[in-house]
Amino acid sequence: MSFASFEISPITPFVGADVDGIDLGERPLSDAERDDVIRALSIHGVLRFKRQSLTIDTLMRLGRQFGELHIHTGISGMKENPEVTEIYSDETSKHVNGELWHSDLSCDEVPPLGSILHMRQVPRNGGGDTAFSSSYTAYERLSDSMKRYLGGLTATHDGAVAFGRFDPNKTYTRAVHPVITHHPVSGRKVLYVNRAFTSHINEVPREESDAVLRFLYDHSERPEWSMRFHWEDDMVAFWDNRCTQHLAIWDYFPERRLGHRVQIAGDRKPA
């Protein structure tokens, strides 16, 4: 599929594309550019933009061109700019953001539509990739009988599953979403459960829920419909939380990795 505003090259057949010919920080996007990015995002799930020099202010400006900025409900943002999360790890880190496969903040009643991460510094000796998987393909590769079984089910997504180990005294958001959703732009169906946030399926006994979710987590994370996003300094990723999951691969300890992320507020519940 062609786009008038930029050139695009798929990274894999199922998820991810490189975008060339657009500068995200030089000026605000035109309406045509913004619309093309939204359409490309709904098709490829994650877009990669190389050689992008962004400040905190231009990152926030970029995010606001796609909607209001979503305040993270699990971890604190930057003091001066609470809409911005600093993604940082070094030799003192005990954990990193995104250590389990997840769709960002699916525990929120209206999860963020998408996330934009500007990577300022990558590990000098390699590593630090982010893995992305296609939740479109995960649904489409289910058997017809499994699709019918899951079609009427809902699941609880609980922030305490992901964040409770860091601060067990904090109250986290919880939400109930359909196990199978559809993307509001593409119209394609999506398998919408993930290992970091989904606690249980509501309409079946817990033992059945646990067994089904184990299968669905493994199925969603299969390498056949996943890709490894290799970062470089001053690279930007824009991913769609409505049709992808991702995992931060912490294979670079004790090196330093630094980036800043904004999340775009969703305008509707998963349906």
Automatic annotation (TrEMBL):
InterPro entries reported for this sequence: AtsK-like, TauD-like_sf, TauD/TfdA-like
GO BP, one annotated term: sulfur compound metabolic process
Record-annotated TauD/TfdA-like domain positions: 7-262
Keywords: Dioxygenase, Iron, Metal-binding, Oxidoreductase
One Gene Ontology term of the molecular function aspect: taurine dioxygenase activity
Record-linked SUPFAM superfamilies: Clavaminate synthase-like (SSF51197)
Top-rank taxon: Bacteria
Cellular component aspect of the GO annotation: cytoplasm
A Pfam family this chain is assigned to: TauD
Family to which the UniProt record says this protein belongs: Belongs to the TfdA dioxygenase family.
Entry protein name: Taurine dioxygenase
Organism (species): Rhizorhabdus histidinilytica
